[in-house]
Amino acid sequence: MKITRIEAFQVAWSPNDKPQQLSAFVLVHTDDGLTGIGEASPMQGGRAALGIIRDDIAPLLIGHDPLDHAVLLDQALHTLVKLGPEGALTSALAALDIALWDLKGKLTRLPVYKLIGGAWKTALPFYASI
Length: 130
Fold this sequence. Notes:
Strand order of the largest sheet: 1-2-3
Largest sheet: 3 strands, antiparallel
Oligomer: single chain
Distance between the termini: 37 Å
Shape: globular
Number of strands: 3
Radius of gyration: 15 Å
Strand content: 15-25%
């Protein structure tokens, strides 16, 4: 399985959303037809993170095995570390990490919590932000 395409995009939840109020997502496509989805930080609509994904990280990942995702994201971090080890770069890498875990879950037909070692809790307090 190889990564064939990476889409970075924003979603408006209502017609009146301002650019900084949009959600930011990434879709990782593979040659097997599987896709994984991840979400970037919505700060400023995720524009900076989505730009880093689209312009800098996607070209590094295309053609590689998504199951090597820890290696791929580590290489991307070290290639782009001068962009700053936090903020937009971290948001971009986190979105891709989520998307690659989603792909692994779909491939193995297991929930991601099983892949990362099991459910430490079965209930969580819930709150909304932004």
